[in-house]
UniProtKB/TrEMBL annotation:
The lineage of its organism: Eukaryota, Metazoa, Chordata, Craniata, Vertebrata. Residues 1-32 form the signal peptide. GO terms for biological process: positive regulation of type II interferon production; T-helper 17 cell lineage commitment. Residues 167-225 form the Ig-like domain. Keywords: Glycoprotein, Membrane, Signal, Transmembrane, Transmembrane helix. The gene is SLAMF6. Its main location: membrane. It comes from Neophocaena asiaeorientalis asiaeorientalis (Yangtze finless porpoise). It comes from the Eukaryota. One of its GO terms (cellular component) is external side of plasma membrane. This is SLAM family member 6 isoform X4. Pfam families: V-set. The chain crosses the membrane at residues 245-265. It is found in: Membrane.
């Protein structure tokens, strides 16, 4: 169970208080390490620990059980964060800004909650025993979980009747150490966000392509079907052709109707003129003779 830590209070300014604490801890270490005592680091390479923004992480501390521990100091980027005296059952948070987010477990591991980007960096556990001084180092990295993975397709038909497709994979937070890769039938095609492929409708191949995005703390995937993408392009093209033919057909019908209407109108006008002449000169079929009369 995590232990609740108590912030170190001092009437002196914060920077001075930290300096005094560090000096007292150093003097304690020097006094504890007499002739024949050793100073060592349990690991020459820092342990890489990945944390999730807004979540929690624990830096696991391992130390020799057979030795009696006099004190443990947790450091963050060289500055004291927590000071522990197991014999006195005393845990002090020496970083007041994080006093509500730092806890020590029963095994003296450091537990950080509600992680922020500022929590990343180098941590060191400094363990003092009656005969030695041990160090364990950690590098804490903070990442966001991947969200809103999307695949944007750009499709067109080429002159040789193949469907050319450009697939672009993206996430909401692209600058968070993300790796992209494309897979088909479980095989990786390439490790990039963009993929260009051709699909031949004669092949009747219904392969599904999957974009996989991952960072050290999460992963996400999105799949697309080439056949469905190219069908949508074909449908759009057919809809365009259908619309064009409809416009042409309607226009042709309108032209025919106008021509027929004009023809009928002219026929009617000619008939009315002929009827008028017959009324004025009954029995005379020669309009010129009728005019002279």
């Amino acid at each position: 169970m995590p232990r609740t830590l108590t912030a170190l209070r001092s009437p002196a300014p914060f920077s001075t208080a930290k300096s005094m604490i560090w000096l007292l801890q150093s003097l304690t270490l020097v006094s504890c390490l007499g002739p024949g005592n050793t100073v060592s680091q349990t690991s020459s390479t820092p342990l890489i620990v990945n944390g999730v923004l807004g979540e929690s992480v624990t830096l696991i501390l391992k130390f020799p059980v057979e030795e009696k521990i006099t004190s443990i100091t947790w450091l963050h980027d060289g500055k004291s964060a927590v000071f522990i005296e197991p014999n006195e059952a005393l845990n002090r948070v020496t970083d007041p800004k994080r006093k509500n987010r730092l806890n020590v477990t029963e095994s003296y591991s450091l537990h950080l909650s509600n992680l922020t980007m500022a929590d990343s960096g180098h941590y060191r556990a400094q363990i003092t025993t009656l005969t030695s001084l041990l160090f364990t180092s950690y590098d804490l990295r903070i990442f966001r979980r991947l969200r809103n993975l999307q695949v944007v397709p750009h499709t067109k038909w080429s002159n040789n009747r193949t469907c050319e497709i450009l697939l672009t994979c993206s996430v909401e937070n692209p600058n968070d150490n993300i790796l992209f890769r494309w897979q088909v039938s479980g095989n990786t095609l390439q490790s990039e966000a963009n993929l260009t492929i051709s699909w031949d409708p004669k092949s009747f191949n219904e392969e599904t392509y999957t974009c996989i995005a991952e960072n050290p703390v999460s992963n996400s995937s999105f799949s697309v079907s080439l056949q469905s993408l190219c069908k949508s392009v074909t449908n759009e093209k057919n809809e365009h052709l259908d619309t064009t033919w409809i416009v042409v057909a309607v226009s042709s019908i309108c032209i025919v109707v106008i021509i027929v209407s004009l023809f009928v109108w002219r026929k009617k006008i000619g008939f009315f003129q002929f009827s008028t002449q017959q009324t004025q000169c009954p029995g005379n079929r020669n309009p010129k003779t009728c005019e002279k009369q």
